[in-house]
Amino acid sequence: MDDVASRGMVLLGCGRMGSAMLKGWLDGGLNPRAVTVITPNPSDWLRETGVHVNAPLPADPAIVLLAVKPQKMDEALPQLKSLGNGNTVFLSVAAGITLARYEEILGAQTPIVRAMPNTPSAIGRGITGIVGNGHATQAHMDLAQSLLEAVGQVVRVADETQLRALTAISGCGPAYVFHLIETMAKAGEGAGLAPDVALQLARATVAGAGALAETASEDPAQLRINVTSPGGVTAEALRVLMDEETGFPPLLERAVAAAIKRDKELSA
Ligand SMILES: NC(=O)C1=CN([C@@H]2O[C@H](COP(=O)(O)OP(=O)(O)OC[C@H]3O[C@@H](n4cnc5c(N)ncnc54)[C@H](O)[C@@H]3O)[C@@H](O)[C@H]2O)C=CC1
Ligand SMILES: O=C(O)[C@@H]1CCC=N1
After folding, report:
1. Distance of CA 72 to CAs 39, 40, 64, 113, 266, Å?
2. pLDDT tens, position by position, 24-73
3. Judging by DSSP bridges, how do beta strands 112-116 and 126-132 pair with one another?
4. Cβ < 6 A, ligand 1 pocket
5. Which SS3 state, helix, strand or coil, does residue 4 take?
6. Ligand 2 — pocket residues by CB below 6 A?
7. Can you tell me which atom of ligand 1 is nearest the CA of 70?
8. What tens digit of pLDDT does each residue of 114-154 get?
9. What local confidence, expressed as pLDDT, does residue 167 receive?
10. Which domains does the chain have, with CATH numbers?
11. Are 27 and 80 in contact (CB under 8 A)?
């Protein structure tokens, strides 16, 4: 982090993901004057942080965070080409775009780390997978990891292809869980509860179960069994949800396969 404070950091794009990460770093004590953000539409929050917005680039920043949409990368990234092939690490959170594609744009000697975070990073509860190219040294990987740990847990994956599956599970996963909350609330309404009560029940149940799954010594399967009284009520619901043909297992398998297919399309 001393290196970031002295050489500086650049953010390309500062929407939901970029802001969540920047907030974590600033809350952790990073000097805003060490940060330069390039973004066409800076938010009020960003302007008030005291970072440099759309200012000239530092000559040799320690790190560049790439946080534009994958579809914007080809248009946005070439402006940073002068920082490639040096000792600046490029840390990308964009889905789908491969290390090889970054090397094509920035130069083959550029240290690049691909990362896939998720939106709970906004409250310091994210989980991010990372993988580096051949020029990302241990020190570069450690820098990327320590920056990402400011917003949650970090796992390193052995090779880039695994980032696809990780994206489909933890990158997209919060959306699946939010949809579970929505659909539980809807089902509660359908069964006669007031909408606000149904939403409160669904939200607290998912949050409470998540916290229990994270802290309990038992694994999730045992926690499920703990809820399921033999011959009781939960068992009947689980008979539907755990059905091998029509329940969660085949449904989630299809959802994950669809996410992976799209990730492949984005990297084509
Ligand atoms: N939202 C999520 O849950 C996750 C998103 N990601 C990745 O993070 C990246 C950003 O996603 P979000 O933050 O959700 O999108 P967003 O739309 O909130 O932010 C993108 C930002 O890039 C800016 N931008 C557009 N064109 C630009 C240009 N030419 N130069 C500089 N900035 C430009 C936009 O103004 C915007 O502020 C994507 O590549 C996505 O794949 C990764 C993990 C999770
Ligand atoms: O939907 C997307 O493409 C990004 C990647 C993971 C979460 N959001």
Report:
1. 12, 12, 16, 18, 11
2. 899 989 999 999 999 999 999 999 999 999 999 999 999 999 999 999 99
3. antiparallel
4. 12-18, 38-41, 67-70, 72, 75-76, 93-95, 116-119, 171
5. helix
6. 95, 167, 171-172
7. 39
8. 999 999 988 999 999 999 999 999 999 999 999 999 889 99
9. 96
10. 2-159 (3.40.50.720), 173-267 (1.10.3730.10)
11. no
Q: Which of 98, 49, 105, 48 is nearest to 76 (CA)?
A: 105
Residue 182: pLDDT over 90? yes
- The pLDDT of residue 135 is 96
Collapsing DSSP to helix, strand or coil, 212 comes out as helix
Helices (H) and strands (E) in the chain, counts: 12, 8
Report which bound ligand comes closest to the CA of 93. 1
To the nearest 10 degrees (0 to 180), the angle between helices 16-27 and 138-148 is: 90
Strand partners, 128: 154
Instruction: Write the ipTM.
Output: 0.95
pTM of the model: 0.91
pLDDT score, position 137 = 96
CA-to-CA distance for 17 and 156, rounded, in angstroms?
19
What value does the CA radius of gyration of the chain take, rounded to a whole number of Å? Answer: 21
Q: Which residues lie closer than 8 Å to 167 by C-beta, 6 or more apart?
A: 95, 116, 129, 259, 260, 263
Which pair of structure tokens corresponds to residue 153? Answer: 């847990």
Asked if residues 89 and 64 have their Cβ atoms less than 8 Å apart, the reply is yes
Task: For residue 251, give the H/E element and its range.
Answer: helix 248-267
